[in-house]
UniProtKB/TrEMBL annotation:
Residues 46-134 form the Tetrahaem cytochrome domain. Its main location: other. PANTHER family: CYTOCHROME C-552 (PTHR30633:SF0), CYTOCHROME C-552 RESPIRATORY NITRITE REDUCTASE (PTHR30633). It catalyses: 6 Fe(III)-[cytochrome c] + NH4(+) + 2 H2O = 6 Fe(II)-[cytochrome c] + nitrite + 8 H(+). One of its GO terms (biological process) is anaerobic electron transport chain. Its cofactor is heme c. Its EC number is 1.7.2.2. This is nitrite reductase (cytochrome; ammonia-forming). The lineage of its organism: Bacteria, Pseudomonadati, Planctomycetota, Planctomycetia, Pirellulales.
Length: 478
């Protein structure tokens, strides 16, 4: 009898625990156990935040139609979306909605359907372009023999973003050489440090030099904060020092708290924190933080989840980096904030895929080494960051670094204008990005494939010009 009672208690306890786990998984926003409740594998673009079901789903487990635009609206705006939902509000295009409901992102992009998910998270048959554009086969003889599902072949057309593939652009750059005579990349202005630390071992710093530096940056630090000569020397050589950024600006930044008086916020008393959060970095580096939170490296932080670690990645990563948390300091090491380290070494510390490992054998890496040695101009080298975190210029002419490393990867033709064409002609760039084996080799040689986009655009404009000339001659002969 006691054995039966004990069995029942065990059975009840197990069920209570199971129900508790299920309820916790359903209610807690970032619960790791949510993965047990997923109806299927999450796509490459969203798996990092799959524990935050509430970001995309309603309480009734429906899907929020506006969830996609919460994250991707600005990206589509910058891309000058070629198929915005507003286009289909026009009665002229209304009949097309019967073929493809282009007003809803979910028509083409659904989650948890691994068996039908293609590149770019596309979850519908890849011949979808044909169903609205059949007339192209008749109006463009050059397209007559193309397969129905080849429209989105690399280097041809993209549904949303064709900034580097539209006909006028292709024709304008049709005659470019594979390698441009001059690099046109952006270079950030250099700042002179406030202090020049002695060029010798830190342990041998002269007392007066240490005092000079220490007096400047520990004046607003707590008296109990240890004065470390190594930290002081590292800081003194940075752009932070050049800009007068002190210890307290990062470790004890003043914050604004709510007050009882409307529109009159007050500053709270700062508390010293040895760790510096990404929010603190964003106080000065707003664009960098904003874009960092949009990419795979920071998207978990954007949804109030723990930082991403290489162990959570789907790409091959180094085992010894598995538990490294990715925040600003993961690449920009504390007090030095070394952009040289962040440009290559920081990436290769984690990434262990063929593309990353092949970089060190490429001419791009050789150019980077030449720049570091002072044998080539500043900005002439090519690093991981050159391509995946390119320098951009904002409306005010300020040069800043795009920190969303996925921004120009999906589709990779996004890289053409912001990266490739700084050094290469358009046709060469398209061919290179369409060559999967070349990508695996990290562009260690010239492309072996050829995409006809530029050729077709050039032929199209030449034909139009011939027709125009024929009409002109016909008018003159009358």
């Amino acid at each position: 009898m006691k054995g039966a009672k004990r069995l029942w208690l065990w059975f009840i306890g197990v069920n209570v625990a199971l129900v508790g786990v299920i309820l916790y998984s359903a209610m807690a926003p970032g619960a790791l156990t949510k993965t047990m409740l997923l109806p299927g594998e999450t796509s490459h673009g969203h798996y990092q935040i799959e524990m935050r079901c509430d970001v995309c789903h309603t309480e009734g487990n429906g899907i929020r139609e506006d969830a996609c635009l919460d994250c991707h609206a600005e990206e589509l705006r910058l891309a000058k979306d070629t198929h915005p939902s507003s286009k289909f509000n026009d009665p002229v295009n209304a009949e097309m909605l019967a073929t493809l409901d282009a007003q809803s992102c979910l028509t083409c992009h659904r989650e948890h359907v691994q068996e039908q998910t293609l590149e770019m998270g596309l979850t519908m048959p890849s011949d979808y372009c044909y169903h609205c554009h059949q007339e192209t086969l008749e109006s463009r003889p050059s397209h007559a023999n193309f397969a129905f599902d080849s429209c989105a072949t690399a280097g041809c057309h993209n549904y949303h973003d064709n900034r580097a593939l539209y006909e006028n652009f292709l024709n304008k750059h049709a005659s470019e050489e594979d390698f441009l005579a001059e690099m046109v990349g952006l270079v950030r202005p250099e700042k002179t440090p406030v202090f020049t630390a002695p060029n010798k071992n830190t342990a041998g710093l002269a007392a007066e030099n240490t005092a000079d530096i220490s007096a400047e940056i520990t004046a607003d630090a707590p008296e109990t904060f240890p004065s470390d000569p190594v930290i002081l020397e590292e800081w003194a050589s940075t752009a932070h020092a050049a800009a007068g950024v002190n210890c307290s600006d990062c470790h004890a930044p003043l914050t604004v708290s709510d007050t009882s008086t409307p529109n009159q916020p007050s500053e709270t008393e700062p508390t010293w924190d040895a760790a510096v959060s990404h929010e603190t970095c964003g106080r000065c580096h707003e664009q960098q933080l904003e874009t960092f939170l949009q990419g795979h490296h920071g998207m978990r932080l954007a949804q109030d989840l723990s930082p991403m670690t290489p162990a959570q990645a789907r790409l091959p990563m180094h085992v010894d980096a598995a538990h490294r948390e990715l925040d600003c300091n993961a690449c920009h090491t504390g007090h030095r904030f070394d952009t040289t380290f962040a440009s290559v070494d920081a990436c290769l510390t984690c990434h262990n895929d063929d593309h990353s490992n092949a970089f060190l054998q490429t001419s791009h890496f050789q150019a980077w080494q030449s720049e570091l040695a002072g044998d080539s101009p500043q900005g002439s080298g090519v690093t991981c960051a050159t391509c995946h975190m390119p320098r951009l210029e904002d409306d005010d002419g300020e040069v800043w670094v795009q920190h969303n490393q996925n921004a120009n990867l999906r589709p990779n033709e996004k890289m053409i204008r912001e990266v490739c064409m700084h050094c290469h002609g358009l046709a060469f760039s398209i061919d290179a990005l369409a060559d999967r084996e070349l990508i695996r080799q990290c562009f260690g040689s010239s492309p072996s494939k050829h995409v006809e986009s530029v050729d077709l655009a050039q032929s199209w404009f030449e034909e139009k010009e011939r027709q125009k000339e024929a009409r002109r001659k016909k008018r003159q002969s009358k």
